[in-house]
Here is the input.
Amino acid sequence: MSLFDHTIKELETMLHNKEITVQDLVEESYKRIEEVDGQVNAFLTLDKENALAKAKVLDEHPDATAKLFGIPGGIKDNIMTKGLRTTCASQFLDNFNDPLYDATVVEKLNNEQTIAVGKLNMDEFAMGSSNENSSYAAAKNPWNTDYVPGGSSGGSAAAVAAGEVLYSLGSDTGGSIRQPAAFCGVVGMKPTYGRVSRFGLVAFASSLDQVGPITRTVEDNARVLEVIAGHDKMDTTSANLEVPAYTEALTGDVKGLKIAVPKEYLAEGIAPEVRESVLEALKVYESLGATWEEVSIPHSKYAVAAYYLISSSEASANLARFDGVRYGVRSENADNMIDMFKKSRSEGFGPEVKRRIMLGTFALSSGYYDAYYKKAQQVRTLIKNDFDKIFEEYDVIIGPTSPTTAFKLGEKIDDPLTMYADDILTVPVNLAGVPGISIPCGFSPEGLPIGLQIIGKHFDESTVYRTAHAFEQATDYHTKRPQLGGAN
Ligand SMILES: NC(=O)C[C@H](N)C(=O)O
Here is the structure.
């Protein structure tokens, strides 16, 4: 058996009929990790002994009502897991071996009897678009290991694409779930801001961060979101709204659906093969009875600047807690207390994190606050208004997830501005707080996946899933597998 062969629902039936055991499944996951993780570096920490022990208990006490019973998954390393090392891929937290509690999302997954096999690689503190900012070895793209898997949830996307786990959790501040999902040819959902609790997610930019699932199919994705979504009294930004049954929204029917396609999303700077694939996808929707029209998000050209100002400002405040006292590896070369703070932070953070803290601190400093931070917040409102206006008339917005397919390792790492500019299609969604998914919609001539982004109204993940699912049913991109060493 290979984890590639089945969806979560199929495995559930097989487990229920006793065709396989949870132990088989979990062992299969570790076998695959052993075979291919040396090539993709998706995992930072494995939890094999505990996972196998839990699998044994589940086999002895099957629970047909648990929504993810026995399903092996992986957790991004900025999400707290009780007793399991959580580093945010930062040297600074290299010794954070024993977190005291589970994030709410992890607790919810555990309640549904899933098995976390380990923690996944990422850009340090979720800052980056290529996973090359990990303090450990960079994760790589399973479709071609000379290329990046995207970021910051690169390990989460690579692990699913490589068939190591059935699902993973990522976090998305400015594209960190959708862009790696696009680069790795898998399904990645950033839910509405407030849909999923962030209690236990190490904060990067609190007005933007959301946790969401990465899977191979839309149905699997809907099922995981059903489990992790919902109000949490431990996170006051989580919305007190009922969680719809997302899996029931997957009717395959998009007749009469009104699609908006922003002209800025197909403009100059978008690679021709990406534009082509999106236009082809729109034809698929037409054949399914949906209609589309061109619209405009006029303020999207300011989105990258506004995003990097707001997110860096919030990061400079959030990351103040890493000082070598409360958290983090303490410098051994300090003479006094102030020196110890300074040296611990200088030695502990990598270059990209330092760049953002400095940018954010500058933007918040007196005299500059109005010119930068306040202006960026005003731009944010204009972008949100652009989205609201479109959604008065249309059900979803569709475009590419990223202007290009995956780039080569090392190609952009010395050019942060180019790396930031590539976030142009994902950050407006975070600034507006609306949900967005990336699903596979084609391949470049080099065989690298292309992602289609579907954006919905606030708290309307159901329509996003229904739209994504209809396309998936009508195409076969999601059935393609990367050829890594080892049995596929
Ligand atoms: N964190 C994210 O969502 C990714 C974005 N590229 C950033 O570096 O901020």
